[in-house]
Design brief:
mainly alpha, Rna Polymerase Sigma Factor, Chain: A, Arc Repressor Mutant, subunit A
Length: about 180
């Protein structure tokens, strides 16, 4: 079934490269949630994620003829989104975006409260990780990209990707651990 989907996507890509606006619209619809989800993770702000997703999709529309098919189409879109995000960071002079505090749910068990607190600590620690390390972490651990795909996407060697991930995880662990816990 997956091969059939990939074949359909390849057909859409070829049609879009020839100027078929219906095929291009379908490709954008099929991949919008992926790009938006990635940008929401890195920006931690819905409006910013929407704006940068729109910018990335516009750039993809303009550059579709440049897609060479050396990577998955979704990887190509994520690369465009990543660069659009970096451009926005430069434009906004690295403005910090804060999430609004969500009210605590009184019906949670103690275990759920602890898990939520740990997730908040991880998200806060991740927000302090600089780019591109944060994006590499998100794409690997939350989007399921392979080391090879990340290496292509960020123009780095696979070993460098592994190293960046290792050090990012260690940084997150140090920020999330309690002071009296040892880091193994």
């Amino acid at each position: 079934m997956r091969e059939e989907g990939e074949l359909h996507e390849q057909q859409l890509i070829e049609r879009a490269r020839r100027g078929d606006s219906i095929a291009m619209s379908q490709l954008m619809r099929d991949n919008y949630a992926l790009v938006y989800g990635y940008l929401l993770k890195v920006t931690r702000d819905q409006e910013t994620a929407k704006d940068v997703t729109q910018e990335a999709m516009t750039r993809a529309l303009i550059a579709i003829r440049k897609f060479r098919g050396e990577s998955k189409f979704s990887s190509w879109l994520i690369q465009i989104a990543y660069h659009a995000y970096l451009d926005e960071l430069r434009k906004w002079n690295k403005r910090t975006v804060h999430l609004e505090e969500e009210p605590a749910d009184k019906g949670l068990t103690e275990e759920e409260v602890i898990r939520n607190e740990q997730m908040n600590q991880i998200q806060s620690a991740l927000a302090e990780i600089p780019e591109p390390d944060r994006s590499i972490f998100i794409l690997k651990h939350e989007q399921g990209y392979t080391y090879k795909e990340l290496a292509i996407l960020f123009h780095l060697k696979e070993g460098t990707i592994r190293s960046k991930l290792h050090y990012t995880i260690k940084k997150i662990q140090r920020k999330v651990r309690k002071p009296d816990e040892e880091l193994y």
